[in-house]
Amino acid sequence: MSASCPEQLLSLEAWWNLRRGHRPMPQRSDLTPETLRPWLGNLAMVAVERTEAAPRFRVTLSGMHLDDYRGYGITGRYIDDLQDGAVCSLPQFRTCTVERRPVRFIHDNSRNSLIFRRMAKLLLPLADADGQVGHIMVSLYPLAANDAAATARRVTA
């Protein structure tokens, strides 16, 4: 991700690194709403469900800002079942799960939002009791380059 990465994602990744310490990743039990407060509205929790074919990724919690960007909630839905472009994130979810490391990328959100096109997205793996990736914490923020386009759309709408 370029230097235009929002400060919120950089600070969340720094917080994740602090929580993990010398471990490959923190456990989900290391998280509390109080410690996540600065990012809470822009966070989603995604469960990694292991199947014989390939893992599936189910949204177990979606922050209110994320739902606002979309115009609807996706809690309870599988990433691969979404019909609005979220499926394009599957390779990054798989990388995060297999490599057990953070993944940052630019997400084309134009199919999901009338306001923001390009979003900076961060996937942070969280360990379950056996040390495997059991959840992925997802954070999404609009890129500053969207501001002019968003303002123009609001004015003409």
From TrEMBL:
It holds the Pfam family PAS_5. It comes from Ferrovibrio xuzhouensis. It comes from the Bacteria. This is PAS domain-containing protein. InterPro entries: DUF1457 (IPR009922).
